[in-house]
């Protein structure tokens, strides 16, 4: 029997328990989507402020069979970060379950039932940790109550331990399976009756011994990624999309393509002029009996395109546009003190400036976008590797002219996401192609070329920093101009200025103890699709700021670590609003102030573990950077070696993270290691460039990702201990921003050469 079942209860013990539960029935407080009691007009933060909110209904997330198997629903997308293990593990720990008897079920898209299912912003655990604890604790009390009723003893005398409820006084015990039917007949107890375990009672949370729920299946190839979907009668498709963003089809000759063996149909798709949001780019789809035939059919198409307004986009020329923008005054997003006049009055010898460039970046997930759609009896089913199931459901429904309830989205495993798969345009394309095939299932696959050339790219940017220094070498004024096409251009016509949430990623909220700080934001247009990317705008902002602080330290003839600590000033907690940041990653500023003590500590920890200040051979150097992002504090120290050919070798990386309590430390460490590898890959070789509106890169030969031979020889992760009473920070993204500046600062320490433009690439190569 499932604990989902309900029925009336009749025993005296049960009546007493129900009487206690009913005592709360007369209260009229407002319950938020997380179930937490709040005032009706309270400001919402965190998960409560997300579409769908946070749901902690035990009957939604947890069931127990008569065989004792506990099934827990995972409502977030798994893309290697381990969330399909971590969230169910939290509920299982509070329940008192044996992990070997736990199964995980992936939730379909259903915001009303499961709450927000967006898997982005490093907030899955941050927003759902307490909810999943409540799910498990509620089920535990129901099992304990069922046992107490059966034994006719007070519920306070029984306890759920390792998949059974025991009565220590009599030595009796009952398995979860034996109690499931009785527990299912009980009403869900009120929140006031639920108590969470103490840290000492937990077996899985905070421990390193919990086996990943998908680990065996992933290793043995028995998992289901988006690209793995197979349905009876399925056709396969690829699409020739406009090579320039905003372009459209002028003409197509299908003759040769239709002669390719296996090609079934050729379908034209209407485009979506900017702002394209999550809509398809349009083009010509080739549907075939297999993917290879579809690809060969696409190659045989004779296509003529109208490139539209972005046909002249050239990334080299646009860099000059960005550079011109940051060299002129612009409207301020933060204006503290008298920055402009202080800079103007400073002697030329004490004024310093630098510009930093970061190109467009592609997500380049190992599994390119893939989706399968089948339409039957007026209903559509979607199988896709998506980070935003609810957006997928609503966009597919709109594209097909169906109601939201007529669309089902099955979330597969994701072979990487990094924000790309939050945009479900590929699922909409598959839906339109299924419709063109009279509802037959169609799997759409993006090739690697498609993925790189039609991505929602990370924005390109130029960051200009200026500072004046006093006699001790410390800044008296700090000016930062940041020019980058904004993500909001994907959603709103004419958007040409970074939004507050982008500026709140390490630009306006720089927490330095400087009297005069000004951040200006020039207007610049977007010429391609811009989307969320792992760490988003923290990457260019942190690269510039953390590189510039190292340059100032060198100018002041001071050790970079000591200088950075002096810039941060004494330990204190800062309201983000005092830094002109009203966003703060959507979190309550009272619970998540910018804590300088924690930022200082990760710097001190990382540098101590790395042996900062140790003497290194010629051609070697250490570089440091720190970042506050996704309400987590991270410092990185990178050691580099530059060989005789000018190649960069990374013998060692030390990363210290303070994210509050670590719920699944193994996954935290793996996320840090992955962020480090990705950060180095982006810094060393990541660049998407444009010529005549077209992306110049097409595959991993010219958009290189870090190979094993080039990875750090060792990555040391140092986690700052946290207690369960602390607020949780993000984990998946915060370790990426400090990597590029730490690397480039290390290169300077090793060679004396400053790297101000990424990727590093061949900038250090020795000339023949």
TrEMBL record:
Q: Name one Pfam family in it.
A: MoCoBD_2
**What sequence ranges are listed for the domain Aldehyde oxidase/xanthine dehydrogenase a/b hammerhead?**
220-309
Protein's name according to its UniProt entry? Xanthine dehydrogenase family protein molybdopterin-binding subunit
Source species of the chain: Janthinobacterium kumbetense
């Amino acid at each position: 029997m499932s604990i989902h079942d309900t029925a009336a209860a009749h025993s005296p013990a049960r009546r007493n328990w129900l009487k206690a539960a009913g005592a709360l029935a007369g209260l009229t407080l407002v319950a938020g989507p997380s179930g937490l009691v709040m005032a009706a007009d309270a400001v919402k933060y965190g998960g409560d402020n997300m579409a769908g909110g946070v749901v902690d209904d035990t009957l939604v997330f947890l069931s127990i069979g008569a065989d004792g198997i506990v099934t827990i629903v995972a409502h977030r997308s798994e893309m290697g970060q381990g969330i399909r293990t971590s969230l169910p593990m939290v509920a299982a720990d509070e329940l008192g379950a044996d992990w070997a008897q736990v199964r995980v079920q992936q939730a379909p898209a259903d915001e009303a039932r499961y709450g927000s299912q967006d898997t982005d912003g490093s907030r899955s655990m941050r927003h759902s940790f307490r909810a999943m604890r409540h799910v498990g604790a509620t089920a535990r009390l129901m099992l304990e109550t069922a046992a107490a009723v059966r034994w006719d003893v007070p519920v306070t005398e029984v306890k759920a331990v390792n998949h059974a409820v025991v009565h220590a006084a009599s030595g009796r015990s009952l398995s979860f399976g034996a109690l499931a039917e009785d527990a299912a007949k009980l009403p869900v107890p009120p929140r006031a009756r639920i108590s969470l375990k103490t840290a000492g009672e937990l077996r899985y949370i905070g421990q390193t011994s919990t086996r990943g729920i998908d680990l065996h299946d992933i290793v043995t190839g028995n998992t289901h990624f988006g690209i793995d979907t197979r349905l009876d009668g399925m056709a396969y498709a690829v699409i020739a999309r406009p090579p320039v963003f905003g372009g459209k089809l002028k003409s197509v000759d299908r003759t040769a393509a239709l002669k390719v063996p296996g090609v079934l149909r050729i379908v034209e798709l209407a485009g979506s002029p900017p702002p394209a949001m999550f809509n398809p780019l349009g083009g010509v789809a080739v549907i075939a009996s297999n993917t290879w035939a579809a690809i060969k059919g696409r190659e045989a198409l004779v296509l003529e395109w109208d490139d539209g307004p972005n046909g002249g986009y050239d990334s080299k020329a646009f860099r000059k546009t960005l550079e011109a923008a940051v060299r002129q005054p612009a409207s301020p997003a933060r204006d503290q003190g008298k920055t402009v006049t202080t800079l103007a009055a400073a002697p030329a010898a004490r004024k310093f400036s630098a510009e930093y460039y970061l190109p467009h970046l592609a997500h380049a997930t190992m599994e390119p976008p893939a989706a399968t759609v089948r339409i039957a009896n007026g209903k559509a089913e979607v199988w896709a590797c998506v980070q935003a199931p609810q957006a997928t459901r609503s966009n597919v429904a709109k594209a097909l002219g169906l109601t939201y309830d007529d669309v089902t989205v099955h979330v597969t495993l994701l072979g990487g996401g990094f924000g790309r798969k939050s945009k479900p345009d590929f699922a909409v394309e598959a839906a339109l192609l299924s419709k063109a095939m009279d509802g037959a299932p169609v799997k759409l696959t993006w090739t690697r070329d498609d993925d790189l050339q039609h991505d929602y790219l990370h924005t390109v940017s130029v960051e200009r920093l200026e500072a004046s220094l006093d006699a001790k070498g410390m800044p008296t004024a700090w000016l930062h101009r940041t020019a980058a096409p904004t993500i909001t251009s994907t959603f709103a016509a004419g958007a040409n200025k970074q939004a507050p949430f982008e500026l709140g990623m390490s630009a306006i909220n720089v927490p330095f103890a400087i009297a005069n700080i000004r951040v200006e934001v020039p207007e610049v247009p977007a010429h391609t699709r811009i989307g969320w990317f792992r760490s988003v705008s923290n990457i260019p902002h942190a690269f510039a700021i953390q590189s510039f602080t190292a340059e100032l330290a060198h100018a002041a003839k001071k050790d970079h670590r000591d200088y950075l600590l002096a810039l941060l000033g004494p330990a204190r907690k800062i309201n983000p609003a005092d830094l002109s940041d009203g966003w703060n990653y959507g979190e309550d500023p009272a619970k998540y102030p910018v804590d300088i003590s924690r930022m200082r500590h990760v710097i001190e920890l990382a540098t101590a573990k790395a042996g900062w200040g140790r003497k290194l051979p010629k051609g070697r150097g250490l570089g440091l950077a720190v970042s506050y992002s996704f309400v987590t504090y991270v410092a990185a120290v990178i050691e580099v070696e530059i060989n005789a050919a000018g190649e960069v070798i990374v013998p060692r990386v030390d990363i210290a993270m303070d994210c509050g309590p670590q719920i699944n430390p193994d996954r935290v460490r793996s996320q840090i290691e992955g962020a480090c590898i990705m950060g180095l890959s982006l810094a060393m070789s990541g660049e998407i460039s444009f010529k005549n509106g077209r992306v110049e890169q097409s595959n991993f030969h010219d958009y290189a990702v870090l190979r094993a031979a080039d990875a750090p020889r060792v990555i040391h992760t140092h986690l700052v201990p946290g207690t369960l009473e602390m607020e949780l920070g993000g984990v998946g993204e915060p370790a990426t921003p400090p990597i590029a500046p730490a690397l480039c600062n290390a290169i300077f320490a090793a060679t004396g050469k400053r790297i101000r433009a990424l990727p590093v690439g061949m900038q250090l190569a020795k000339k023949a």
